[in-house]
Amino acid sequence: RVEIAAIVDASKNPVSTLSSSPLLSISDLSEKYDCPCFDSVSELLADPIGPKLDGVIVATSHASHFDVGMSLLNEGIYRRQ
Predict the structure, then answer these.
(1) CA distances in angstroms from 78 to 36, 37, 50, 52, listed in the order given
(2) What spatial distance separates the first Cα and last Cα of the chain, rounded to whole Å?
(3) Are 28 and 47 in contact (CB under 8 A)?
(4) What does the pLDDT profile of the chain (81 residues) look like in tens digits?
(5) CA dist list (Å): 43 to 3, 48, 74
(6) What SS3 state is found at 80?
(7) d(CA 77, CA 80)
(8) Alpha helices in the chain (DSSP H)
(9) Hey, how many other C-beta atoms are within 10 angstroms of the C-beta on 29?
(10) Engineering a disulfide at 45: which of 32, 50, 65, 76 sits with its beta carbon 3.0 to 4.6 angstroms away?
(11) What pLDDT sits at residue 18?
């Protein structure tokens, strides 16, 4: 079973150049998937939900993918020590 535990996006109204259809706002996604929203990965990790995460999907632009992924990997390493 897969559950969306949280959504992280600094933009309250994301846009995409890949679709002509408007994207759902972050608050609409939160309601649709019954999960909290966060403005940053650090905010997510500081929340009580952070330690409960089993995995994440990093769906960011190419330019930010590495930084987001490394912060999540470093948090995982820190928690295993």
Answers:
(1) 24, 24, 13, 14
(2) 28
(3) no
(4) 888 999 998 888 888 888 888 888 899 999 999 999 999 999 998 999 988 888 888 888 888 889 988 988 888 777 776
(5) 20, 10, 15
(6) helix
(7) 5
(8) 26-33, 41-46, 62-80
(9) 16
(10) 50
(11) 83
